[in-house]
Amino acid sequence: MSASAWSLHSTLEKDTINIGDLPLSRVLVIKDANYPWLLLVPRRANAIEIIDLDEVEQAQLMTEINRVARVLKEVTKPDKMNIAALGNVVPQLHVHIIARRTSDAAWPRPVWGVAPPLAHDPQEVETFIAALRRKIWLS
User: Fold this and answer.
1) Distance CA 69, CA 10 (A)
2) At residue 79, what are phi and psi to the nearest 5 degrees?
3) What is the pTM for the complete model shown?
4) What gap in Å lies between CA 75 and CA 109, rounded to an integer?
5) What is the residue-level pLDDT of the chain in tens, covering all 139 positions?
6) 55-76 helix and 122-136 helix, angle to the nearest 10 degrees
7) Residue 126 near residue 9, CB atoms below 8 Å
């Protein structure tokens, strides 16, 4: 798989804030303040499933998922972490990392379609992103 022809799917571009790149994946914040919600999108053209990555890239993706999930957990102190690669709506390979609280709008159900997206407070999301960048080691 080549990174040279890679581009972010238009839906992900519209629904996220880019906070930086890890060796394999772009790290994005979902534009929905209902949940602390990140995406990792491997920068590989035509990757739809995790099995579309070679074994080294799969291992790198798991390393990046672990790193980002640990930081999100540290920053948000959730009751539960949800990590999933579904791709039923957006076919481009992407991994959801969502910090869940028993008090959130969707608990205990999946977050999709339960509550309309809530706009982030600009200052709060900038503080959140700054903490993530610092702890994930994004420049």
Assistant:
1) 24
2) -85, -30
3) 0.94
4) 23
5) 455 699 999 999 999 999 999 999 999 999 999 999 999 999 999 999 999 999 999 999 999 999 999 999 999 999 999 999 999 999 999 999 999 999 999 999 999 999 999 999 999 999 999 999 999 998 5
6) 130
7) no
